[in-house]
Structure formats: C-alpha cells, structure tokens
Amino acid sequence: MKKNGKLIAAAAIALVFLWSTTAFGVSQAFKKNIYNPGFLKPTDSVLKVKVGEYAPDFMLPAVSGEKISLSQYRGKKNVVLSFVPAAWTPVCSDQWPGYNIVKDIFDRHDAILLGITVDNIPTLFAWTNQMGALWFPVLSDFWPHGAVAGRYGVLRSDGTSERALVVIDKKGIIRYIHVNDINKRPRLENLVKELKGLQK
Amino acid sequence: MNREIKKIPLAVATGVIAVVLLYCLAFASTPPPQAGSVLPDLNLPVPERTGERNYLGLEGGTYFKIPEIKAQVVIIEIFSMYCPYCQREAPEINRMYSIIEKSPDLKDKIKLIGIGAGNSPFEVQVFKEKYTVPFPLFSDEDFTLHKCFGEVRTPYFIGVKINDDGSHRIFYSKLGEFKGAEPFLELMLQLSGLQ
Questions:
Q1: Do B87 and A188 touch (CB under 8 A)?
Q2: Which residues of B touch A (CB under 8 A)?
Q3: Coil vs helix vs strand at A136
Q4: Are residues B24 and B110 in the same domain?
Q5: How large is the ipTM?
Q6: What letters, b where the CB count within 10 A reaches 16 and e where it falls short, cover B15-45?
Q7: pLDDT band (50, 70, 90) for residue B14
Q8: Does B153 contact A26 at a Cβ distance shorter than 8 Å?
Q9: Higher model confidence: residue A193 or residue B5?
Q10: Which residues of A touch B146 (CB under 8 A)?
Q11: Same structural domain, B155 and B185
Q12: Cβ–Cβ under 8 Å, residues A109 and B97
C-alpha cells in the first residue's frame, strides 16, 4: 500500500508538471528579447469591482505623452480596459498586436481600447515600438505602483497585474469583467461577443 | 477482494505515469523540423470551403496529412494573428501566392498553407479577412501542432518536397527571413529542385 501511495504521489507530481507547462507563440518581432517567467499562478488577486457598478475613474500617463482619464469617454465611447501583466513577457507581447488589427471591430461597437500595464513609460515605449503603430492608447500604471490595477482588484502579489479585460459602457457602468489565466491569451471572440452585447 | 482493490491504484498510477512520460517524450523537447528530415505525423482538418479543398487537391474525408496535398512543393507558414511580422508580411506572401497561381509552370506544383499557432478558428478567420489571404489557413488553437513543430517563433516557414511515390522531405525550415515574394519563391524553387 505504501508503494502504491508513492506511485500515486509520483503520478500527481508528474500531472502537476504536465498541467503547469504552458504553450505560447512568440513573434519574431521581439527577437530574443522576451523574458519567460515560466508558469505562473493563473490568478493572484481578488476583484474589487463588479458588473453593474460604476467603473472607478482614473487618470494615467500614456506612452504618447498625454494623460488619459476614463471619464473623458463618458457619454462618448464604450471603453475596453486591457490589463496585461508586464512588458517583454511572452503572452503579453502577443496580445495587443492582435487587437491592433481589429480596430474596425472596436469602431463598429463604438469602443475605445485602453491598454494598461504597471510598467513605466520608457519600458512601454520600447516594448510597444516592436508592435508597430498601435491605434489605441497605452497607459502606464507604474506610479503609484499599480494603483489602478489595485483599485480594480487585479494587482497580483508580485506587483504585476492580471491579464484582465473590463468592458465599460458609455454610462461608465462595468458590463463585463474577465480575469484570464495569466499564462494564456484570452480568446478574441469572447471580447467581440461582449462588445456586440453592448448594443442590445 | 482486498488484493484486487489494492491493485487498482497501482494500475492507475502506472498508467498515468506512462501517459505523462509519453506526452513529455512526444512534446517536451521536440526540436524544430530540420531540412532533410520529414514532417511530424500530423492530421489537419479537410477545409470546409470547396475552393480550398480543390486548391489542395483533397477529395473529401475529415482529416488529411500535408504530404497528401496534390503538389510537388508545399510551403507551410506558421503564423499568428497576434504576430506583428506575420501581419506585416501577409500582403507580400499573398503576392507570392498570386505569382504562383498566375504561372502555368508553377500553378499546380506549389501550394501554400498557414497554421495559426494558438489561434482559434475565429482568430484565424479575422487574419484571413483582414489580409484577404487566398490560401488555406488552419487553426491550432491549443498549440498542438505548434508543439510538434518545436514551438518555433512566428512567422516560421517550412518547405516540403512531395515525391511521386508519396514520400516527402523537408528542404527548408527557418524562422522569418521572408525577404519578398520573388526572392523567397526563387529560393523555394532552387532548394526544392523544381528549378
């Protein structure tokens, strides 16, 4: 029986290893400059906002040099917040470039995308330059460190943010929150479905 | 009876370990395909669109293997809709497709396919529509194919020569280095022996 227990434990360890490996594709656009942190705890925070509530307002500096607030879109645009954990990491580097080719989908649903990380502006500048010209603002939640991520409840214990999407309608109400497994990229079709839902 | 019960966890544990080991052996350290070797044993879904099935010379069925494509050379692009270089190069790869299709000498000899690493069918379709990609693209949503191809960065190109007897050989396997439709096509013709 003791032998069986050891075997079961070995199988369990092997399975944990199996499940903890993660697959991702990295674009050559980033050459060999992507740091792979390995498998991370899928989520590591507790949401502080709910669907149906007013989205907490914020003002953050953008890579372009301007300051962007959430409230400036009130009554004008639906807003999608895309929190990604960190610049120069595998999955994050291949998320926004995809959004960059679907501006028409955002336009069709009268939505703006705001990309947010906890990195500082120079880091975001260098990183997003590898993605080509992005049509949406990229905001730095660097200082006070991760304050906006913290207010939404998507700041992880290591100071990075979750890989999270928040859809906010023109009234400023949160209509969708999705905290994805940090090791994977959220499916585009799920976001598109939520954007379509805004028009109902 | 008790002995039989004790045997069950042992069998289950042994089975699980065997599966894990096989998985790791199969995928964990798969190197990228090498020129001179053959493709991993992969099944792709037969395209639903008639035009794409005709382009690949597939008559039906559910799945096919790349060497079953009716051509002498197949160029595989491993891409992602999330990859900036794949986006940037898409129009030029389309142009290479047009050059091939307009050439009576090349039209039935060279075929192109794309595999969207980690891309869902929806995401592959977004890429296809955005860049009006005329050749078949396949979704590799859970990275299964990508793992078999050594988890290469994108875009990655693989050239495969298919022989009359149905055997095949990889003659090109490289990351990026797509320097335009004409030079790349010229390279494929030279390396495959078509020229």
A1: no
A2: 6, 9-10, 12-14, 16-17, 20-21, 23-24, 28, 80-88, 117-118, 120, 122-123, 126-127, 130, 142-143, 146-147, 151, 153-155, 175-176
A3: coil
A4: no
A5: 0.83
A6: ebbeebeeeeeebeeeeebeeeeebeebebe
A7: very low
A8: yes
A9: A193
A10: 23, 25
A11: yes
A12: no
- Residues B64-102: pLDDT tens digits? 999 999 999 999 999 999 999 999 999 999 999 999 999
Indicate if B169 and B105 belong to the same structural domain: yes
User: Residue A8 is nearest to which of B13, B87, B122, comparing CB atoms?
Assistant: B13
Q: Name the pLDDT band for A34 (thresholds 50, 70, 90).
A: confident
**DSSP H/E element including A188:** helix A188-197
Instruction: Please check whether residues B4 and B49 belong to one and the same domain.
Output: no
- CATH for A25-197, options being 2.60.320.10, 3.40.30.10, 3.40.190.10, 3.90.79.10: 3.40.30.10
Element (H, E) at B88: helix B84-102
The count of structural domains within chain B is 2
Q: Are residues B1 and B78 in the same domain?
A: no
Residues B97-130 have pLDDT tens digits of: 999 999 999 999 999 999 999 999 999 999 999 9
Task: Judge whether A15 counts as a catalytic residue.
Answer: no
Are residues B25 and B44 located together in one domain of the fold?
no
- Say yes or no: A101 contacts chain B, CB-CB below 8 A: yes
Tell me the chain B residues in contact with residue A100 when contact means C-beta distances shorter than 8 Å. Answer: 84, 87
**Which of 19-78 (A) contact B at CB < 8 A?**
21, 23-29
Is the bond into A144 cis (omega within 30 degrees of 0)? yes
CA atoms within 13 A on the CB side of B14: 7
Per the CB < 8 Å rule, is B120 touching A188?
yes
B142: closest chain A residue by CA: A23
Domain extent, residue B109, equals 32-192
Domain with B137 in it: what CATH number? 3.40.30.10
Reported as type and span, the H/E element at residue A163 is strand A163-168
Segments making up each domain of chain A, as ranges = 25-197
The residue annotated as part of the active site, out of A34, A86, A87, A92, is A92
Q: Given A11, A17, A97, which is nearest B87 (Cβ)?
A: A97
Q: Where are the alpha helices (DSSP H) in B139-179?
A: 144-148
